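Dear Dr. L.,

I hope this message finds you well. Following up on our conversation about the binding site, I have prepared a predicted three-dimensional model of the protein together with heme C. For your records, I am including the exact sequence and ligand specification that went into the calculation, followed by the structure tokens. Please feel free to forward this to your student if that is useful.
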Amino acid sequence: MNAPVLDHSADGIEELDNPLPRWWLYLFYGTIIFAIYYAIQYPSTPYYKGTLGWTQEKQWASQAPPKKADPAALDLKALATKPEVLEAGKKVFISTCASCHGTNAEGKIGPCLTDSVWKYGSEDKEILLSIRKGRPKGMPAWDTFLKPDQVGAVATYVHSIGNTTATPANATGSGTPIPTNSPNPEGK
Ligand code: HEC
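The resulting structure of the complex is given below.
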């Protein structure tokens, strides 16, 4: 180290005129170049939009988690085109619904679900409501017991088997009425 000594001293302490380390200098230049690049590409000042057209909104739109489908407004016909949904729905039906509606939904305590008789309607939202919120004469609400996708799947299954057979004798089931002081007497 034979760096020249600067011609000033403080209380006998002298300062050497060493050059800045190369790595430090290049890093420093690098940050300057990056800053210029960044200021040009991105909205760096209040009225400048940047050449990339970057905005928070676009960034959010590209990263936002997909919106969960509204469980009350599923398109059962469209869902029925997915075999895995029907398959999952059938599984839920066998394990959860068959005890009352019959393995083939032919009707037991609960009504037959394959005929064209629908007390509460066979529209997508009506079937979903029957399953999610229950119906007064003995149909439990499944909202809290099944996951939303299970409800969607079993509704899709019920929709797909509906209106496919002739109306049997026990079309409306023989459900025991539940008390009118039930939290959900109208099934709504
Ligand atoms: C504890 C017995 C029971 C179970 C379990 C049950 N249900 Fe029901 N379900 C009924 C009864 C009884 C009715 C008729 C209610 C009424 O008339 O008010 C009914 C009605 C329905 C209806 C309306 C039918 C119409 O004519 O509008 C649908 C749809 C339905 N159930 C689907 C299901 C699905 C899907 C499951 C499984 C997640 C299920 N049910 C589980 C007893 C049951």
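In brief: The pocket of heme C is lined by residues 96-97, 99-101, 109-111, 113, 118-120, 127, 130-131, 135-140, 142, 154, 158, 173, 175 (CB under 6 Å).

With kind regards,
A. P.
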